[in-house]
Amino acid sequence: MTAPSLVPLILSGGAGTRLWPLSRDAAPKPFMRLPAGGTLLGKTAVRALAIPGAGPLLTVTRGEHYFATRDAYSDLPSTERERAVFLLEPFGRNTAPAVAMGALWAATHVGEDVPLLVLPADHLIQDAAAFVAA
Fold first, then answer.
1. Are the CB atoms for 56 and 108 separated by under 8 Å?
2. Using 50, 70 and 90 to split pLDDT, how confident is the model at 1?
3. Residues paired with 11 in a beta bridge
4. Is 58 a residue whose pLDDT tops 70?
5. Phi and psi dihedrals of 87, rounded to 5?
6. First and final C-alpha spacing in the chain
7. Fewest CB atoms within 10 Å of the CB: 2, 6, 89, 126?
8. What pLDDT was estimated at residue 26?
């Protein structure tokens, strides 16, 4: 088996306060249904999995958002869902600790030299082909 070229690390743990009242702690922005269908988190996962040679789909989220995160990946093909790894934070502590947790997991389970591609779960990138090419 060939080593992955990178490990996508999706960060999905924010409190959702910037778009309040649409987005809030119990229902943050990555889980909001978009008018065109899907969620920002689901679209981020699709983009990450489209990268050739990408390793496991690593997602850091808060413990209370595990089921919503798993549900956001339910539209992925089953072979892609099987690549998903969920790291659960007991409570949010911002970006750096989440990235550190993902980096430690990747170093232990994938390899110390495999780069991480850190992806916020709440970005909308319309041109997925250009993203993958970049």
1. no
2. low
3. 60, 120
4. yes
5. -110, 125
6. 25
7. 2
8. 57
